[in-house]
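Researcher: Going back to the complex we discussed earlier. I've cleaned up the inputs and rechecked each line, so this should be the final set. Can you rerun the prediction on the complete assembly and write out the structure?
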Amino acid sequence: MSIYLDNSATTRPYKEVIETMVSFLSEDFQNPSAAYRDGLNIERKIKKAREDIAKTLGARSDEIIFTSGGTESNNQIIKGVARYNKARKKHIITSQIEHPSVLNSFYDLEREGFDITVLGVDKKGRIDIDELKSALREDTCLVSMMHVNNEIGVIADIKEISKAIKSFNEDIVFHVDAVQSYGKLRFTVDELGIDALSASGHKIHGPKGIGLLYVRRGVEFSPLISGGGQERGLRSGTENVAGIMGLAKAVEILFNGLDEKIEYMKKYRDTLKNKIVDEIDGVRINSFDDGVCHILNVSFLGIKGEVLLHFLENDDISVSTGSACSAKKPGSRVLKALKLSDDALEGAVRFSISEENNMDEIDEVVEKIKTHLSRIRKISGYK
Ligand SMILES: Cc1ncc(COP(=O)(O)O)c(C=O)c1O
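Model: Rerun complete. Updated structure for the full complex:
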């Protein structure tokens, strides 16, 4: 039996998502911009999908833009807001542990002449609010912070961050990368004070290649993609109808009984963590109990996380050593920012859980880790 514990990298699409997509790739294939009945019918279905998704964020449907995923949403809002404000405001702020789609957008803008501030984090992966306050400037136009970190699962205090920004200047756009929190935490954009938000389909049992960008009414930005004026001119290109409808189906299923699903993932995470701590020597838990329900990052000292990953792979157990996009590059940037020892850095493994994981898997996972660890540690001479 295979055990999939890499749900932060991607999730298995729900069966109903695939069925929905197939129907929009076969029977309902028409262009939603077409003027005849079949086209209008699809346009109506997209409208309903947009409304249903908006509701889960406490947003209005005209504040949702469909994109190709979290990466595009992050690029679009960061570059779009910065470039729109370029003539007057040239300063933007983010943090050190952001996803590369945020950080590299910042570095692209720096090359275009923007001033960027990249805030450091404490040992838990949190920015210092006072440091943020003193970084804010008269010419700051955007702050972008992730809600949940994809490697360690720390939850940022978005409400406090928003308060700090807005009490300095209401006009600064506050963007939140919610790719790892949407569908894992219950929140609305109003209660957290969010102006713009990115989320992605494939992290919530939806399809890859579809995502969304929430942008509060009144927030102005320059579109990255010009063309036929779809998505109210903010993201041109014929709509990814199957992707949008698949995403809406995933959202519908996920948010039905979400609280129970979150509790279940938390229970799985804690049981796995406790068993690892109780039964294995030389481990360091890099995630915190008040972190997100689905991520557990653990360092197995004296080994390379990558080696353990490949041993587990032979048992049909999928884990990762960091984020999927840096899975093939050594040394996690996020864990380095937390100032972990070299040993802890090298031995880090991320277990990421979904509602589809079965509690019965835990014993097998821990048993396999114990067996492999003792072999690897014997070879590496770890005492
Ligand atoms: C925090 C975070 N932001 C953005 C992304 C990028 O999303 P996508 O894969 O949809 O482009 C990811 C995906 O790993 C992520 O974890």
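Model: Worth noting: The mean pLDDT is 96.
Researcher: Good, that matches what I expected from the previous run.
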